[in-house]
Amino acid sequence: MDLLGSILNSMDKPPSVNEEQKKLIKRQKEMAEKLKNKQKEELMRFRKYVEERIGRFAKDDRPHIEFQALDKVHRAVIHEVAEFGGFIAMSFGCEDVDRYSVVYKKENAPTEDEIAARRNHDGWNEEIAKEYAERRKQQRELEYEQKRLARSSAQNSNNTTSKQSNPAPITEAEIKPTFNYKDKYAHLIGQEAALEAARKTETNQSYGFVPSKNKKDVRSIEQTLADIQAKKRLKLQQQQQEQQQRQQEEEQQQNTQNPETQKADSAKNSSLASQPPTSSSTSSSTSY
After folding, report:
1. Minimum mean pLDDT among 33-42, 110-119, 259-268: which range?
2. Is this model's pTM higher than 0.85 or not?
3. Which of 2, 39, 227, 246 lies 20 to 30 A from 15 at CA?
4. Gap between the Cα atoms of 164 and 157, Å rounded
5. pLDDT value at position 197?
6. What's the start-to-end Cα distance of the chain, in Å?
7. pLDDT tens, 130-171?
8. Which residues contact 182 (CB under 8 A, 6 or more apart)?
């Protein structure tokens, strides 16, 4: 706590605000609040103006109405009021330059030509409508001509390919092979290659078709456990038989080695019996 107090005491105090500065800040807040309220009132008046104008537009025979170039906030009000009244609202032009909004009735929705003209900054009237209709007609004719030329070129190419693939028939007199191909490939197909060498193959009708009932284990639990125990007993018996066989083989190997060991032992015993007694044995016998 002492450390924190020392740090706070060493820091500079905030600058004091005098009465004039307080009054200035208060006036700035009041002006900002007035400006905000003024903007709200202006938007409310503009909204009423848009509602009245669209209301009159709904009762007359005009196909659309245009608004002057406005900013994004005012255009958003126009779109909101138009959509709420069941109309179509669209904006054209460059942002922050000359972007304006147009409201259409649903039964008089704008055509593609009108949308294209307004996006191109050409406006829209009867003369411009005729001009764009003529352009669209010329464009259709040009596309039709291009398609016709493409079809004709494709047909010509098909005809040339068909002529190349189907040349004039050749008579038998013109067919004169220079050599027999069998002689060339005799090392592969042999000298006799005909239908006799071919073998007719037949597919296995049952291949891949296994009944689902053959894939199911229809045994009961008791029978399954009994089969498992039987397999274990059989495996144990086989292991015991193998162990007995190994023991028998080991015994046979030992029996084959026993005669040799017996002969060696007998020879050793005979050599010990033939040796004379040592001096130690005689002295021990005389001492008694």
Report:
1. 259-268
2. no
3. 2
4. 11
5. 56
6. 113
7. 888 888 889 889 988 888 888 888 888 777 776 666 655 656
8. 189, 191, 193
Under 8 Å between Cβ of 103 and 54? yes
List 92's β-bridge partners, or say none: 100
In the chain, where the domains are located: 25-122
Asked if residues 103 and 78 have their Cβ atoms less than 8 Å apart, the reply is: yes
State which amino acid sits at residue 88: I
Quickly tell me which residue has 């071919």 as its tokens: 198
Question: What token pair was written down for 259?
Answer: 């005669």
Looking at the domain covering 25-122, what would its CATH class be? alpha beta
Beta carbons of 102 and 92 less than 8 angstroms apart:
yes
Q: How far is CA 45 from the centre of its chain?
A: 54
Distance CA 67, CA 46 (A): 12
The answer to which of 7-21, 75-89, 169-183, 217-231 has the lowest mean pLDDT is 169-183
Query: Residue 288 to residues 95, 280, 284: CA-CA distances in angstroms?
Result: 146, 13, 7
90 within 8 A of 101, measured Cβ to Cβ: yes
Phi, psi of 92 (to 5 degrees): -135, 160
Judged by DSSP in three states, 178 sits in coil
